Amino acid sequence: MKTVLLSLALLLAMESVQADAAQDLDAAIARGRYLARLGDCAACHTVDAKRPFTGGLALQSPLGAMYSTNITPDTRNGIGSYTLEQFGDALRKGIAADGRHLYPAMPYPSFSRLTDQDVGDLYAYFKHGVQADPTENQASAIPWPLNMRWPLGIWNALFTDAKPYQPVAAQTPEWNRGAYLVQGLGHCGTCHTPRGIAFQEKALDQTGAAYLSGAKLAGWYAADLAGATDSSLQGWSEADLVEFLKAGRNTHTAAFGPMGEAVAHSTQYFNDADLKAVAVYLKSLSAGREVAAVGSDSTTVKLVEGKPASLGEELYLDNCAACHRSDGRGYRSTFPRLAGNSAVLGASADSLIRIILNGSSVPVTQSAPTGLSMPAFGWRLDDAQVAELASFLRSAWGYQAAPVRAEEVAHLRR
After folding, report:
1. Residue 42, SS3?
2. Who's near 33: CB < 8 A, 6+ residues apart?
3. In whole angstroms, what separates CA 304 from the centre of its chain?
4. Which DSSP symbol is given to 198?
5. pLDDT for residue 290 is more than 90
6. Dihedral Cα 386, 392, 397, 398, nearest 10 deg
7. Is residue 266 over pLDDT 70?
């Protein structure tokens, strides 16, 4: 009888341990799913929404196209055979399980900041929370000998710092959480930090003057987030930043291009605490810097009176004023304001030109489900007219950004 009771007790204990282990795994998968959204892993690794994380996205570089890889738990073509250590090395050091160096199109210089806990949770999600798919990986289009990977080891030694984020003792836990997200999983510097001659980010955190100071990327201009220029976010409040990341729009602007995709697939899913932490950190980068002064504004008077003094003003009245108004302030949550808009006044006019040429759509989000679109004007305006219109927008309502040349428009149109 005692033997039977002991066996039953052991069986119950084993079942309890197994149940606890299953609960722990389920919790890790849930955390990993959230972290994968924070990192916007789907942006590069999902081309077909019906087959998530199977890779195949062409990532263009000056050397040729690279293709994102299959990161499902398939053991042949995905990461199904990766150990936790190998997964961590790929994520944080850019080294695949077979020892190959990954191209830094994979933002491992940022992901190196991740804690062991977050790496483990992501591993649990991709191993157990994602459907395995046998889709084969596609070789890069970079020609030999430029496609040799061993030089990347030297590049990593020069330009990366594969160490988890270290909290700054003088800052609050909220600030440190924001810094961890922006520098790490959010990999904001990948787009918003200018690149050096070796295509490296010029800074990986706020200790570098170039960090998040704005950068040109694939025909777009990612805005200055650090207060380095007059077109930065100095005039935004923390609430403005939270609203933008959650809804894809606020009183200052609306998300477009790659940022619109980031909002749609990633930042709208941040929990409120993480959104607030990101806003606290980003606002701290420009703390103490004055908001750019706006000069006297005669633009609105001329436009209201219907007396354009230049071709740019005439083009604005004919094509833009109906939605964006004569004062350039647009309509909140509907048509973005143009006066003082960081996309209009950026150090580069690339984004503004592309939006005029090709139109744009604001992202559809849970808090702002109406995805309004602006039509393309490239079919009706030639390069000189687009340049005149863009130049007007960059100098109207008291602002003084550099004018646009027709040659710049022609380049982006091509």
Report:
1. helix
2. 125, 129
3. 38
4. T
5. no
6. 140
7. yes
Q: Dmax over Cα atoms in the chain, in whole Å?
A: 102
- Is-contact 216 253, C-beta < 8 A? no
Report the Cα–Cα distance between both ends of the chain, in Å, rounded.
86
Q: What is the DSSP letter of 101?
A: B
Q: Which residues of 366-397 are buried (b: 16+ CB within 10 A; e: fewer)?
A: eebeeebebeebbeebebebbbbbbbbbbbbb
Measured in degrees and rounded to the nearest 5, phi and psi for residue 153 equal -65, -40
Average pLDDT value for residue range 252-270: 92
In whole angstroms, how large is the CA radius of gyration of the chain? Answer: 25
Q: For the chain, what is the total number of helices (H) and then of strands (E)? A: 18, 6
Query: Whole-angstrom Cα distance, residue 310 to residue 319?
Result: 14
- Count of alpha carbons within 13 angstroms of residue 237, beta-carbon side: 5
CATH of 299-413, one of 1.10.760.10, 3.10.20.310, 3.40.50.300, 3.40.1000.10: 1.10.760.10
Which stretches of 60-156 are assigned E, i.e. beta strand?
A: 66-67
Determine the pLDDT at residue 349: 92
Q: To the nearest whole number, what is the mean pLDDT of the chain?
A: 89
Task: Report the C-alpha gap between 295 and 225 in whole angstroms.
Answer: 23
- C-alpha 372/C-alpha 380 separation (Å) is 21
CB 278 within 8 A of CB 270: yes
Contact of 58 with 281, CB cutoff 8 Å: no
Spatial separation of the C-alpha atoms in residues 285 and 236, rounded to whole Å: 12
Contact 69, 103 (CB under 8 A): no
Angle 200-201-203 from CA coordinates, rounded to 5°: 135
**Other Cβ atoms within 10 Å of 145 Cβ, number:** 7
Helices 272-285 and 238-247 pack at an angle, to 10 degrees, of: 130
Alpha helices in 213-362 (DSSP H): 238-247, 257-265, 272-285, 299-304, 311-319, 321-324, 342-345, 350-358
Answer yes or no: is pLDDT of 17 > 60.
no
Residue 363 has pLDDT above 60, yes or no: yes
Residue 164 φ/ψ, nearest 5 degrees: -60, 155
pTM: 0.89
